[in-house]
Amino acid sequence: MNLKRTLSIGIPSGISMTLGLFIGGAVFAHIIYGPEFAPPGKFKAEQMNPFYFLWTKAAIGVFFGILFTLFYEVLPLSRKIRGAWQGMKYGFLFWLVLTAWDISHPLVYDSIRNDDQLFWLVYSLTGFLAYGLAAGYLYKREEVQAKPR
């Protein structure tokens, strides 16, 4: 495992995850909750300012970007990723594995009855897809740069 490689791919991919979470959160909150962007009483007033959302999403994105890149390195997935599309597929698979428990019970016993649950499912999916897109691109770029000319 190469720590420099993990950080050089994990941090930019985490920042992409941040952007995916921020944009996906805004879009899906508006679609699911309406113009209020959140159900009444869900957040305190100080939590509804944009700076709060930016720094929390940045911290989440960078932390998980590094963590998932570390998993990619340890599980040799990094050798299998040959571009942005494959990165997105692995991002989707990571999302699916991590959310399978939450998805399985509502689908088996009933349906997703809760707007919050639906929001978090699509919100987190956008973050994982953005992460996978960036990681796949960076792995591909690294591979191209490493080839002798």
SSE topology sketch:
Layout: H1 3-33, H2 50-74, H3 84-109, H4 115-146
Task: Please characterize this protein's 3D structure.
The structure is a single chain. The protein is an all-alpha fold and 149 residues long. The protein has one domain (3-146). The protein contains 4 helices and no strands. Helix 1 packs antiparallel against helix 4 and helix 3 (84-109) runs antiparallel to helix 4. The longest helix is centred in the C-terminal third of the chain and has 32 residues, at 115-146. The chain starts with a helix and ends with a helix. The relative contact order is 0.20. The model has no long low-confidence stretch (mean pLDDT 83).
User: What is the strand content?
Assistant: under 5%
| Domain module tally | 1
Main beta sheet strand tally, sense and closure: none
Low-confidence stretches are none
Gyration radius (Cα, Å) is 17 Å
Structural class: mainly alpha
Name the shape in a single word.
elongated
How many helical elements? Answer: 4
Task: Tell me the total number of β-strands.
Answer: 0
Mean pLDDT across the residues is 83
